């Protein structure tokens, strides 16, 4: 996409040239070679500094695509926020696997990582790097500090109040990721001199809820062209919906009513509508989709990184799926589906053939089962994200992605409401839930052929439907945790728990639900799918 809002990420990076030694220590201020008084003599510097806080989600360092990394200790491309987030949300689940042997990646495939895993520790560092960036922005934009730096015009002062709300949102988002991934984490709201103590997950949850509630009215309004790529009032409501949906995990006390209310606020805001073409949400021109509530913008010319969508798109292709098919300059032969990810799209009574969401799956030249995780030819490919426009046009630069990452879409607001309604809503809420689900299905099937009945709308169905609608969008681990299926034998998938190839296949065959019609067509299906579990 072409960045239409905050385009000064590079300038912001110059303002905050952070030293690697202090980048994740919440007691250390970011270091700069330029004095604050000189920097803020230009009143545009406040916006440029905010751009660096946003850039913490999208970029990997002080220059693109590499060369001055934010985080030390891991390859710069590997250390990028979105790339790490996607790997931690997808690789340990039934949806995705990666073939590379870089130290720490294969344990992610198998749920066998430990506290020393470089990808896990760097995700933690990335989260607190983002928190430090936001905290320093808030330190530099108090009225007292602005006055010390020479003051600003009334118009710029008003803008800074909005920027402060945005920085608080970005801090809340990073803390949410920290709490979701790691449980009890430090609640860092300022740069001090004493190392912060770990806070309980419940306390971090309560802080995030209070922050989002407080800043909502001050955030940019959703639906305006000037708000694209920024944290809006409805992005805050969507994060609240996510928090409330998972409140039982975070605090021990579910809040289904809160999830329904927050999701309804987003749905009824009038700022979003479903894209008529599902693919538009994942194409190089997805900045034109009316559905995306909050995104991490990517731009092949202005915002280059070897993480983010550049990683997801390049690593998705290889073998029979050529680079030109998805608009990139080369294939990295990395990520593909685990067999149970493919099975989410199997033809069943509540999932007839014809779902466009399964049309991305590429089986040519690939095996369904994964006996060898390092073999890219094992596991079907899933090029859902592409660096081509929805009509097949080329992106700006095949080497780097133009496709924005859709953190939240209106479709997920529908699904959050539906799940919360089934878990704790009224009969009327359940009826609304059915309408929302069938609205999504009508888009997926191009009509009513995929609609389900009230009896078919169950919690297990919704988990599967989330897997179909939101596949590879960075939600699956959190969903499986909420359903109590991320660990244990209630739901098995290939390589769950690190079980070596050929072991425990009998248990897999016994517990995995194979559709009768598929078994009739392929008597060896259980052996194929369970090989590698």
What report would you give on this structure?
The chain is mainly alpha-helical and 533 residues long. It is 43% helix and 3% strand. It has 21 helices and 6 strands. It has helices at residues 9-15, 36-39, 45-58, 81-90, 105-110, 118-140, 143-148, 154-182, 201-215, 233-245, 247-251, 256-267, 308-315, 339-343, 410-424, 427-445, 459-469, 476-482, 505-511, 516-521, 525-530; strands spanning 97-98, 185-186, 198-199, 292-296, 335-336, 405-409. A two-stranded antiparallel ribbon has the order 1-5. α1 crosses α3 and α12 (256-267) runs antiparallel to α15 (410-424). The longest helix is centred in the first third of the chain and has 29 residues, at 154-182. It is globular. The two termini are 40 Å apart.
